[in-house]
Structure formats: C-alpha cells, structure tokens
Amino acid sequence: MIIAQGHDLEQQFGANTLFKNVTFSIDSNARIGLVGPNGVGKTTLLKIMTGEQEPTRGEFTVNKGIDVGYIAQENVLDKDKTIWDEMESVFAPLIKEGKVLTNMQQQIADHPEDQDLLKQYDQKQFNFEQKGGYTYQSDIKSILNGFKFPEDTWQKRIGSLSGGEKTRLAFVKLLLRKPALLLLDEPTNYLDLDTLDWLEGFLKNYSGAILVVSHDQYFLDHLATQIFELQFGKLTTFKGNYSAYVMQREQRDKDQEAAYEKQQAEIKKDEEFIQKNLVRATTTKRAQSRRKKLEKIDRIKPPKHKNKVRIHFSSERPSGKEVLIFNDLTIGYPEKTMVSDISFQVNKGDRVAVIGPNGIGKSTLLKTIMKQLKPKGGSIKYGASLDIGYYDQELQGLDPSKTVLDTVWDRHKTMPERDVRSILASFLFTAKDIDKTVGQLSGGQKARLTLTVLSLEHDNFLLMDEPTNHLDIEAKEVLEKALKDFDGTLLFVSHDRYFINQLANKIVSVRDGHAKIYNGNYSYYLDEKAKQANATASATEDAEPVKAVSEQKLSYQEQKQRDSQKRKLQRAIDQAEKEIEDLEAKEKDIQNEMANPEIASNFDKLGPLQEQLDEIQKQLDTANNNWGKAIEELDNFE
Predict the structure, then answer these.
(1) Which DSSP symbol is given to 66?
(2) DSSP 3-state of 200
(3) What pTM does this model have?
(4) What's the CA gap between 515 and 339, in Å, rounded?
(5) Which of 221, 381, 383, 540 is in Cβ range 3.0-4.6 Å of 323 for a Cys bridge?
(6) Residues with Cβ within 8 Å of residue 320, at least 6 apart in sequence
C-alpha cells in the first residue's frame, strides 16, 4: 500500500534549481536508500517530506494517520531529565492509559456487579496490550543497550552527556516512537561496528517504511530493497540494494555511451553529406531535407554519471618485505593504558584494517606508530626503506591560515603552478576554491585536500584514520580503487564495513583492552566470530559430562554430604507436591461453587469467592515455583 507520494517536486534557491520534476511513491513496507553526491539536495528533499520546508513547486502528500519521523526533529532533549525519564516520555499517553486501567481495577473491585464497567475494562486492556503497554519498558531497555547506553547510565542527567551521546540518544528516542514512515539522514555516522550491526538487525524487522540517506554502502546493501538516485537535478529509481544499483547504473551509462557514440557518428555523416551537397544544384533539395531532419533530432547526451574525482597513490621506492613487527606492545597515555599485548606483523602489500568500538584505542595505535605517543610496553620494529604517510581523521595536518594552493605548493616548491592547479582540479577544487584558506573549507573539502597532499608524497606505507569520513559515495568509490591499485602497504582504522570488506586482507579487532588478528576481510571476520560463538556454546554443553566424571572422584565425606542434601531436596519436593495437590483441590471446589447459577448471578457472593480463588492461585504459583526449584537443584546432583 502506498503511504506517501512526491509529485513534480522542484526546489530553487535564487536563480539555481537544485532539482525538478521529482516524482516518487513510498510503500508501507519500503526500504529505500537515497543516494547522490554531496550538495544535490538529499537533506532538502527530506525536509520537504517532513513539512519543515516548502518546495518551490509540486507537493509531497502523506496518507491520513501516517506519522513521519525524522532524526533532526528529535534533537531537542530535556537536559534536566534522566535518560530513562526522557525515553519514557515517548510513551506518556500509554502510561496515562495504564493509570486509567489501574483506577478501573479498583472500581471493579468496589463494584464487581457492573457489567458495562467490565466490558470497558476488557476493551481498554486489549487496546493497551496492542499498543505495547506491557512491553514498552523492555523496548526502551533493548534499544538503549543496542546504542551502548548500559543500565548504569539510565539515571544520568541528559545535560551531563557529550554531544555524541546526545545524538545517539535522540536516535533512540526516534526509534522508540516507531513512526510509520522513518526518515534517516546519515544514521550510521559516529556509530561503532557493534552498534551498526545491531541497528541493521533492528531496522530489517522494523514494522514501518524507511527512507535513508547514507554513504555507507554496506548498510545500504543489507537494508535497502530500492535505491533513489538524486543527481543532476533529477531523481531516478532502481530496484534492489546498493550493489544492484551500481551494476544497473553502470549498464545504463554503457548503453547511453554506446547510443551517444552511434548517434554522433550518424550526425557526423549527415553533416558531411550536407556540407558536400548543399551547394550542388542536383543535390541541394536532398541536403536541405537532411539538414531539417538533423535539426529536429533529439540529441542523446553523453552519460554524466562518471567519477570526476581522480586519486592515485604510488610509492617512490619499495619498502622491505617486513613493514612493522609488533611484539607485546602496550599503548595508551601516562594516566591510562588503552590496549595491551599487541603482537602481529605487517608485510609489504598488506591491507590491514583496525576495527573496534569508539574510544577503545584504535587511533592511539596509529599515533604510537607515528611516534606521537611512546609505547607503554613492548616494542615496534620498523622495516627497511619505510616512507610513512599519515591521514589524520581530525585533519589536523593542515594549516588553517594557508590557502589551498599554498598548502600543496609549500610542500612541492619546484612544481609549476599550472601542475598544482591541475592536480587540485582533479580533486574537484575550482579556481575559486584554490584561493580559499583551509579554515574556510568544508569537512569534505578538507578531506580531499588531505588526500591530495598525501598522494603527492609518494610514500610506500600509508596510515589512514577513518579516511572515508566526510566523503560522499562517489569519492569513496574512487578512494577504494586508488588504494586497491596502490603498490605499497596500507594500515587503516575504519568503521566503514563496505570499505573494509573491499580492501582488507587482515583485520585487527581491538576489544576489551586486547587486539586479535583475523587473516581475511570483514566477511571472514564475521564468519570467524560466529564460529567462535558456536564453539563456546558447544564447550558449555560438553562441560556437563566432564563435570559428571569429576564427581565420581568425590571423597567419602563429600559424597555423604551430597547424599544428605539430595534427601533434603527430595523431602522438599514431596512436601511441595502434597501442597500443590491440596491447593488444586481447593481451587476446583471454589470454581465449582462459582459456576453454580445462583451464585454466578449474585455479585455479593461471587466477589468474596473470587478473592478466595485469587489467594489460592497465588499460593499455588508459589508452591509450583518451590517445586520447580527443588527439582532443578536435584537434577544438578544427578
């Protein structure tokens, strides 16, 4: 069922048209990825869909009763509330309904004969249950844990949280709202790999429609079943996930290129014919006819969808076979140890990805390799003929007061200005951009400038800390290809699973203060983790027979004590069974009495019997629990 539609949408800013003729529909169970380069209007389109911004032309309509949720709308959190209270506020109407039900229970106890009241209560209780009245607290706990807010943080005041924590908490609040149409703008930013894996699983099972803007190809591959491409002022729809979209896009561009070249050849042939025959009396009419036909032809445009950013990394000289050897390395700061006992080797040509939760010590490892931090223990052995290039995720290697041109030129003074400008142009810096200072650049422009500088150094070993941050999908694809073609060695920190999967031949997983090595890409790493989890489960199951064998070797005194405990448990079981039998008999007697037509229609008599029955059933529950515990304990002795 279609729940929302965009019709003939157009957005202008002054004389510039961002997009036009944008038409699409969203089904109730849609999983849509909205992609396109930075600046084409993806966020603007989301704001139109939320009603936050009016389009210049056209309209976006939502079916009646459809709630649209957008992360930017949830950023206002009450700084004086605790995390738990703020999340509970999402369910304020439901909590109010729960209080109404509690009051009705008291009324029923006071007036058990009121049939209308009982019917109202039953209906309200059913509605309350359907809305999640009995499960909303577990939903809050589940999503808070998924977003790395453990129970000991739930009573923290929101005002005491960091900016990143507030952003994640706003996301939690949005997901708890469960809007029928969920709009997400770069939801994977600043989330670690564990949280990303959790979020993917949650969104796959989400009951509403999802439209997500993301540069995370792995995320789009695992979530999206439809891709909206916004580029060159228009929106094109593709079926399938991100990888399917790339294949379809490339095929479309090939077909368009072939059609363009074929038409250009025909046009050239017609133009040559016209030029030769227009002045001849015998062929003028034919030439004029062909010219009119040529003027009316719909000219095919060459495909625009070609990566414009050009990145190339190459080394000036080869390194030795052994690049780095870590031997029991411990890293951190004077006041804090981050990771201990790091031992692995990086060889020439390796592509090593360092992964792990935020703040665990991944960047600290790179800074230690760069000798910005001293090892706290162990050692790093550096290979021969090593030239190290470093990409810092904070982009601190750039002087904010220098112009873009001078940033490159100061490092390569002998390079002609024309060549510097040409290289910068290949990284999408315009003539106007080149005269800007670094401090005036956007995050994406700073990232591209850092890559420009790095590509000109011709190092044979690249250390890169989150190199895909600030880059759009097209720029990331170009960077992936450039690093695949790089003739040196790469060690990089990343939370971009697609990027890791495309490049890595080794994974260093940093967790709980230790590093573990996996010889493969991200898919291999996930498979190995799954195998380890299964092995742990099997080991737990296998431990029981081992335990039984060891018990055969108990001393006489220990065995005597165990036999005494077993006899005690058996007596407890027998006693519980007798109690259960007696209570069940009483329960049956009361139920038979309540079924008597004379009593069933007399609420004065029925009320006290119901109270007796409730008490008997409570005692029965307790007796059954005691019996179950005693049985379980006795089984452990067998």
Answers:
(1) P
(2) helix
(3) 0.68
(4) 7
(5) 383
(6) 348, 383, 384, 385, 386
